[in-house]
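ok, trying the design again with the full structure, not the truncated one.
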């Protein structure tokens, strides 16, 4: 589904001291698999998700999605893929501050159809947020915001879910409700799940270990 070909990503290109976030990565992501992505802080996990989702363009090398090079696509075509096929839960939640929980969840659908509203409510209920529907992000805890971001990412039934530390600020019960939802969509969704917590990835089909921007290294060193 994705192919990463000799990709490097450097930040601060205009500065003397550049940051090598990822170096010469080669990787294949197969459709319908659950990938656990592990590695120390700063090893390039979030950067890898940005590259795969087309949010960042590689400094060198190519990222293919279904045979097409993401960085060579027209901005509009890429935006359409992101909206229809990708769901992204960032490490920071990026909810829209003036919208309530229900409407934040509906953002990707841009819809107020009764069916969609029901679907959003159902997802939010599954995530334990049924009493929060009318609250704005500033009235929520960090973990509640995180769960709204999960609902927003899933409302589209994405083909690919990019999940960056989505359970990090959740207690056991809330984290379990998130993992249960992922278990349910696993068969029809390719999931890229970044975490520091290996117990969360018991259901992973494959593991990707990053260390200082390179693949490899094993869990014992993490
Ligand atoms: N916008 C940016 N500008 C400059 N450097 C950046 C930027 N974003 C990330 N970096 C650097 O790139 C490297 C990889 O960062 P990345 O966020 O991908 O790590 P990570 O594995 O997700 O870390 P964490 O577990 O802390 O989230 C780090 O050295 C980081 O400082
Ligand atoms: Mg990160």
């Amino acid at each position: 589904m994705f192919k990463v070909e000799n990709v490097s990503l450097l930040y601060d290109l205009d500065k003397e001291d550049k940051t090598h976030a990822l170096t010469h990565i080669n990787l294949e992501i197969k459709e319908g698999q659950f990938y656990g992505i592990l590695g120390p802080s700063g090893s390039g996990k979030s950067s890898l998700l940005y590259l795969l989702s087309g949010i960042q363009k590689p400094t060198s090398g190519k990222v293919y999605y279904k045979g097409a090079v993401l960085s060579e696509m027209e901005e509009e075509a890429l935006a359409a893929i992101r909206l229809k096929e990708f769901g992204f839960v960032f490490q920071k939640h990026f909810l829209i501050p003036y919208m309530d929980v229900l409407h934040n969840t509906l953002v990707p659908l841009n819809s107020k159809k009764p069916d969609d509203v029901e679907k959003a409510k159902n997802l939010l209920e599954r995530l334990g947020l049924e009493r929060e529907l009318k609250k704005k992000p500033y009235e929520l805890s960090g973990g509640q915001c995180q769960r709204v971001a999960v609902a927003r990412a899933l409302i589209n039934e994405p083909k690919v879910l990019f999940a960056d530390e989505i359970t990090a600020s959740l207690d056991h019960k809330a984290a379990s409700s998130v993992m249960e939802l992922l278990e349910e969509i696993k068969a029809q969704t390719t999931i890229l799940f970044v975490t520091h917590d290996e117990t969360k990835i018991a259901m992973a089909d494959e593991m990707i270990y990053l260390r200082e921007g390179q693949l490899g290294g094993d869990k014992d060193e993490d």
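Keeping the full-length input from now on. The pocket of magnesium ion (ligand 2) is lined by residues 45-46, 91, 164 (CB under 6 Å).
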